[in-house]
UniProtKB/TrEMBL annotation:
It comes from Lampropedia aestuarii. This is DUF1367 family protein. It comes from the Bacteria.
Amino acid sequence: MAEIQLVRMPGVELSEADRLVMRRGIFEHIDGIGESNQKSWRRWWNRVLRLEPGEVMEVRTHQERLGWYHRKHMALEQAVFQAQERFDVFKGFRDWIKVGAGHCDWYPGPKGGVFPVPKTISYSKLEQADMERFHDEAVAFLRTAHAGKTLWPHLTPAARIDMIEVILRGFNE
């Protein structure tokens, strides 16, 4: 979910002509689906346009996930998990990928260090653009020498590269 903070900029005033052009673009180019959504869309924009200088508004958006994309990523994770030699538990494997892809929060540890806590990739919690970013970062991580050495410690560096590339090629990566 994208969270966006908006602020009405002080010292910027729109002429009536500017307002008409903006309203035409907002309400004719993009509109709500059906009467109820059209009314909600207009009410929301009217609230935005009535902000006072310096007033802040927070907007949360959600872009639906594409089912085929989600299934492709999950199948890729499963294929790598089945081919690797390090992890016995899928959850641990997935958490390792999340951390390696940077999809985590970092917290102070009990002894002064920091530790990662993987973020969710739940279908309902992560919108499509963020899932695509995570997927790309996960694939990039799986291609690293560190990932190869972790997943297939007995193979040579060249064989590790071949192993991950064969799997990724099956998913057009």
